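Researcher: We're reviewing a set of sequences before deciding which ones to prioritize for further study. For each one, I'd like a predicted 3D structure that I can look through quickly. This is Dyp-type peroxidase C-terminal domain-containing protein. If possible, include the structure in token form so it fits the rest of the review sheet.
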Amino acid sequence: MAAVTNMWARSAARFCLLRGSNRVQFLRPFSTAADGRPADASDSVKSEETVQNAAPGAEKLEVSAAEKALIEEKSKLQEDLKELKEKYIRALAETENVRQRMNKQVDDAKLYGIQGFCKDLLEVADILGTATTSVPQEQLTDANPHLKNLFDGLKMTETQLQKVFGKHGLFKIAPIIAVKDGRRTAANSHGTRGTLHVFVAVGCRAASTRSSGTGRRVAPWLVGVAAAGAASYGAYKATLGSQSLATTLDEAVKTLRETASPHKVIAAAPPESQKSVYSQGKDHALYLWIYLCPQANTREVARAVSRLQQYVDKVCDPTLTDEDDEILAGVGFGPNFYSQVAGKTNEPFVYAHRKGVLGEMPSSGGDIFIHAKSNQISKLFELCQEIMRNLPKNSVESFEDVYSFVYKNGRDLSGFIDGTENAADEDDRREIAVEKATGGSYVITQKWIHNLDVIESEKEKTLESWVGRTRPDSIELQRKSISSHVARMTASNAFQAPKPFQIVRQSMPYGTLSGDAGLFFIGYAASPRNIEYMLDRMVGAGGDGHSDDIMRLSRNVKGTYWYFPGVAQLKKLEC
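Model: Here's the predicted structure for Dyp-type peroxidase C-terminal domain-containing protein, in token form for your review sheet.
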């Protein structure tokens, strides 16, 4: 025990701190019994000098290392904080976008959810209206109580029905022109030979939550012009766009007077378009690009693809499908192919090769293009199989089927919202996309491959300056370069400058990480001039020499024009 205590004492005595001083003095300990003398003065002084000379440097080195570690930790925390702030801001923006979309969907569901039911009831309302107006007023007297009571009952029913329509946001569109020289009816017009009849039925439009206030047309006006003389002439449905009803009827009457025989009937029904042209998008899309062999029988091929709706119905039974699993499809043709099977279009649509400072837009050609939309990608795959199976044997030289998807609630793979300026109202989209005389549409398709490395590594402000919009919420930049994408499309870098031309975009992301990924661009227009202007602006061919900065983050590898004929034009190809 004494030995252990002695060893502890000798170890504890190795250092002594001289109080009253800021320096450390080393005292020589008693290390052994043989060497039991205390350290002399000279040893003490030497030890003290050594400590004085060494301690400050050692202390300084130790502090520098600590400061460096703290600085590195601070820098790391600042970077983490910045990243978290960006994620938070993006999350807020994304949440707000989702909230706005959900509110819009809820509002639309409230207004349009019973549209089909209301549309059926409108026919009942029309019949009631016809019944009440067909009763001569002079017979509604007390001398004829049964007729008077029946009339009052029908009138009350009609009034109550209109109140119900109004409660659910459905309102009458009153006719501008009354009936002339004849009796108005929603079904037929009768009269003596040589009498001119104009009959009009009231249309209906659902209320709108949008600022435009145009709403959705539930039932069109019924417009008919006829030279009476035979037993009856049917009324023709016509969906009138921005043109006034009065002007349309005046023109119809004028045409009738100039050209009609006593049995001539003129209708103002607009040509029908294919289902893919201006309908809303789905979760997935099929882009089927087909090149035919030189020896292919173009008539047989045209006959096969004109039956596209039959293939759609085979994949999706129309009696069992709804909006969630339906397929909306359309077929387009290249200029050479269409000229062989149907003749010339109203406007030429030749896609020229373009080259700018930032890249090229190659002209890839093609004979047939199928655009189909569905919420189920498996059904699009089935449809593609069905189409290719029904094409004439040995007629296809090559084809490419691209399947797209919705990315982050409607964003491009670059993170920017796609199609911000697309018209929301169906009537507006039809006005932009459809050629009035035919119901056809001129279409551009382009395949873009994104440089994902540039998108991920470039600063967000730089990307936003290239596009001309903020990435989180797609707000247009008040100050932007003349070479930004927004400025190239509007011919000015001024804030909210009007667009000289418009198209209906149906573009969607596509691809895989192991292969190519980017944007499949597709746009519909009533005239190819709308698209030509935009392409020229992108490569600087519009006169100012500036190319579109969006070509810094994506490369165009394929492109051409197509003509999607109207339904009536397409049916002619079946013969």
